[in-house]
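User: Study the chain.
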Amino acid sequence: VPPTLQDLDVVAMPREREVLPGGETALQLAVMDHEGEPVMGAELAVVAAELGPRPCPGIPDPRRTFYSRHGAAEEASSASAEPCLDSPRMFAPSVFTDASGTARVPLQLAGQPSQVRVDVVAAMGDGRFGAARTEVVAREALVVVPGLPAVLGHGDEFQLPIVLENRTGEG
């Protein structure tokens, strides 16, 4: 059986790509077969981790692992430069798609500005599988950015300009 017939097309879409810190969104997940038909009963593993300063391999795409010449070693080396933190924000190890090939998973974001990467792996008992990745950002609506001088000495006087940045997309 050609590997492309084994593929599941997985789509992971957050309800909102940007959320206030501490906010919640939902991930809409969809699984289709190689002909674009919805797949009922696909089992999904979903993990969300905050991006940070340390390297993190994430979840490898199973198609590359099983169908590439170098297998998992190639996948691990290509993903090693991606940043993430140790602990996941959310882990849902066993989510199933409904008759329309979709599933929904809630995602609570941290109380501070952050960027969250979501990895999804889908599998069927007949050997078909696929993967998807998306991101959600927790961002403050208004941010004060001070314009600090590069160098100050004892007794120096200066004016402190500030910029109020509106990130709501409104007015």
